[in-house]
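Subject: sequence -> structure tokens, single chain

Hey, anyone have a minute? Need the predicted structure for the following. Not urgent.
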Amino acid sequence: MTFKVAIIGRPNVGKSTLFNRLVGRKLALVDDTPGVTRDRRVHAAKLYDLHFDVIDTAGFEDAGASTLPGRMRAQTEIAIRDADLIFFTIDAKSGLLPDDRTFAEIVRKSGKPVVLVANKAEAKGAQGGMLEAWELGLGEPIPVSAEHGQGMPDLRDAVIAALGEARAFGEEEEGEDDEIAATEVLIGEDIADPDAEDVHTYDDTKPMRIAVVGRPNAGKSTLINALIGEERLLTGPEAGITRDSISVDWDWHGRRLKLFDTAGMRRKARIHEKLEVMSVQDGLRAIRFAEIVVIVLDATIPFEKQDLQIADLIIREGRAPVIAFNKWDLIDHPQELLAELREKTERLLPQVRGIQAVPVSAETGRGLDKLMDAVLRTHKVWNSRVSTGKLNRWLEAILAHHPPPAVAGRRLKVKYVTQAKTRPPGFVVQCSRPDAMPQSYVRYLSNSLREAFDMPGVPIRIALRTSDNPFAGRAKKRN
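Reply:
Had a minute. Here:
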């Protein structure tokens, strides 16, 4: 059985840098600005031959419970309760501050084993901070440099000493992250045999990745908390609380899911701070590795220009979108507004005609089951496959009803169609002159495919190809 380590300390001592070092990837945002981390993040970590889960936390601050720092502190206290071992981190370069002493007392009262980590030990003058650290009464400080990877062997030995060899080297459980990561290669997967006529079955045993995106203050974190039934993510009336893309494992009716909360995405012209740029980039990465993307719209001010740009980005990335009209509890005439919003959805997002759009209230929990049903339906469509035989029988009917137009006096010939990929569905159409095919006719084929084979609400890719002419490029020889 693996153990959990929580990295605790005041702001800007290098907790997220140490977290990234232990997990072996740059998952947590790192910046010189104090208080970058706000939500707690859990991930599988490795320290030489030790395997465990590590929790990155917000910087401990002494503030009122109703304030944002106070709510961040509450999240950190939850991490302390969940952990088996605490890395109490200090900045050896700046030495002890009053907050270090205050929070050391809180950690000591928790009764959990503690390793005192003196970070930034490579800096000039860090020795003084190391000596001061003894005053905390948490044992010998372990000098490390999370940024440069120094002191990791000593940290390993300190973990074993704190937990005991039997606990530290317990059997490692197979991590869920590894299983979910294995599904990433299936995004845009090739179909092994496009000509096979066997019925494609949907595999509901594989874990699903769902990213939740939207403008700031649309209610993304509140929605995830309502879905999983606990206050896992930091929420509040302030816009822009979430900075990192935080993943949350969840089981819904036996289906394993991984939810990704992302930072609110403002218009590019309004983004000036480096930290916000990093947050948005982290959110874009979550979109690219997701399968389903839930676009959270504020029902009181839906379909702002930024909402449509976010939706367009998701569609271009080939992810499967689902719209959640949040804050439905604030709407006075819900039936009238719902009809209006669905009409706008069809008109403003024609490239994913039939997209699932569900009114929800993250505050009251209304509509969450319908939202998850829409997510599963969309995921099945995104994974759908049509046999080549059915496609060409459909193509024959289409060409008889509406053949492609003549271009420059020459009729375009469409010969053959097959599905080459799923996730999203991708089709290859063999035709005589791909470069001359009007985009309007390609859209006609796409919409007809969507209607004929019941594929609403997901992007459909159509690639035009032509067969090689064996005589092309040969110069005529004349005597």
